[in-house]
Design goal:
- The complex is a heterodimer of chains A (228) and B (243).
- Chain A is of the alpha/beta class and 228 residues long.
- Chain A is built from five helices and 14 strands.
- The two termini of chain B are 31 Å apart.
- Chain B has 243 residues and is α/β, with parallel strands linked by helices.
- Chain B has one domain: Glutaconate Coenzyme A-transferase, CATH 3.40.1080.10.
- In chain B, strands 1, 2, 3, 4, 5, 9, 10, 11 and 12 form a nine-stranded mixed sheet that branches.
- Classes of the chains: A alpha/beta (228), B alpha/beta (243).
- At the A-B interface, α3 and α4 of A face α6 and α7 of B.
Chain lengths: 228, 243
């Protein structure tokens, strides 16, 4: 998605996912949401990272070959998984003990809107009037770190990082990082800190498509086209 | 004594489920772990007013979620298409895409009170509590959202929590890999999901299995769900087309 006023290309979904994986720490337990976050799995090369899916499995690393699927080996997004010896299976009580108990280190998920104080809205479009919460409220409320991956603006070029979410909330005051198709942001004390700009982008161009005032310092990184 | 739990057919196993009953559907959503044959048998009954309780409820038919590509999916929408249910309590009633509309979304458009959406972790804990004799519990999930509306709030260690109540049912339909004649169960892979908790939370639990074995064939140390929770067992035919 590009607009004529864009100074650079918007990053692709795969590029956003790849960038998100660099924030995943060794030996951490990770839950990936549907959409862009699910693409992160293929960029994780660290064998100590453990992927959790709320339907009752951790330790998976690959989707199953289409010719060799088992309906009983699935992730929460409905993708069939390849069996490996590190996998552990459990029921939903245990799965949400892991989530509610704060044992998930990082969750990466998509959003319709994120506000400057870290509120996230990702489960219902108001004019539809019905939506699916799934595990998103539990994950956002209880994971140690919340990373949102999303496009910076809607299809109609409306900002998705806003002063206040107008869509129904998933959780409040919880988002730590936002990775969009134009940059990497941190939320800290109601401040939106721009950490890195996508190739071709600068703080002025990013501010133009963002509702919230952007802060940045001299450590701001301009990504190189060869690095994304 | 033992064989009293074993039913010859799916139709027979669901024959006495009455109108206006609450019925839990086990598994997660998708084909693995779904009691598809029990659901189809129940959907043929001439009853009405069921309340269905499930997790990912009605998205497979329109999206193929959790189903192999070559099989036409069955999901909890089947009860709404047949007109025997009038309410669903679940965490995931509709797919992200609005078109084509799923049977549950169509039903909801006619009756906005017909769908109750609950966060997945709260839903499973409500069910667990019903089976564990705990009437209510506190969770921070949903604080600051529409889930908070009308709920008692309590502060523990400076953090807000919502009071959520246990949720039981008249009947649970679940799916397992193997049952022994006493009803002890083993599941396979990610097909466990909501089924073990639902088995403890319903007045009658009916399990659909691939295999029934003699007592002792399942190692006593490796039983996932206790036979005391299981009232009826029905074995699938070999080579059933549904996963």
């Amino acid at each position: 998605m590009n607009f004529h006023s864009d100074p650079g290309q918007r990053l692709s979904k795969n590029q956003i996912a790849k960038i998100a994986t660099k924030f995943i720490k060794s030996n951490s337990l990770i839950n990936l949401g549907i959409g862009i976050p699910s693409l992160c799995a293929k960029f994780i090369n660290d064998p100590t990272v453990i992927l959790h899916a709320e339907n009752g499995v951790y330790g998976f690393n690959k989707f199953a070959n289409k010719k060799n699927i088992n309906a009983d080996i699935m992730d929460a997004g409905g993708n069939f998984l390849e069996i490996n010896k590190n996998m552990v299976f459990f029921d939903s009580v245990e799965s949400f003990n892991l989530i509610r108990g704060g044992h998930i280190d990082t969750t990466i998920l998509g959003a319709f809107q994120v506000s400057k104080n870290g509120d996230i809205a990702n489960w219902m479009i108001p004019k539809r009037g019905i939506g699916s919460i799934g595990g998103a409220m539990d994950l956002c409320e209880n994971a140690k770190e919340i990373i949102v991956t999303m496009e910076h603006t809607t299809k109609n070029n409306e900002p998705k990082i806003t002063n206040k979410c107008t869509f129904p909330l998933t959780a409040i005051n919880c988002v730590n990082k936002i990775i969009t198709d134009v940059g990497i942001f941190e939320l800290n004390n109601k401040l939106l800190l721009l950490k890195e700009c996508a190739p071709g982008w600068d703080p002025i161009a990013i501010q133009k498509i963002t509702d919230v005032k952007i802060e940045y310092d001299k450590k701001l990184i301009f990504m190189d086209i060869d690095d994304v | 004594m033992r064989n009293e739990k074993i039913y010859k057919s799916f139709n027979q196993a669901v024959m006495d489920i009455k109108s206006n009953s609450s019925v839990m559907i086990g598994g997660f959503g998708g084909s693995g772990g779904q009691p598809t044959r029990l659901m189809l048998a129940l959907s043929k009954r001439n009853i009405k007013g069921l309340t269905i309780i499930g997790n990912v409820a009605g998205i497979s038919e329109t999206t193929g979620y959790g189903w192999p590509k070559d099989i036409k999916p069955i999901d909890q929408g089947v009860f709404f298409k047949k007109g025997i249910a009038n309410k669903i309590i679940c965490s995931f009633p509709v797919p992200a895409s609005q078109n084509p509309k799923s049977p549950i979304e169509k039903f909801w458009l006619e009756n906005k009170d017909s769908v109750e959406v609950i966060p997945q972790g709260t839903l499973i804990e409500k069910i667990r509590c019903a089976g564990a004799g705990i009437p209510a519990f506190y969770t921070s999930t949903g604080v600051g959202t529409i889930i908070e509306k009308g709920k008692e709030i309590k502060i523990f260690d400076k953090k807000k929590y919502l009071l959520e109540h246990a949720l039981g049912a008249d009947v649970a339909l679940i799916r397992a890999k193997v049952a022994d004649e006493n009803g002890n169960l083993q599941f396979f892979g990610t097909s466990r999901a909501f089924s073990p908790a639902m088995a403890t939370a319903a007045k009658i639990t009916i399990v659909e299995v691939d295999e029934i074995v003699k007592v002792g064939k399942i190692d006593s140390n490796n039983i996932h769900t206790l036979g005391v929770h299981i009232n009826r067992i029905v074995k699938r035919r070999k080579n059933d087309i549904y996963p």
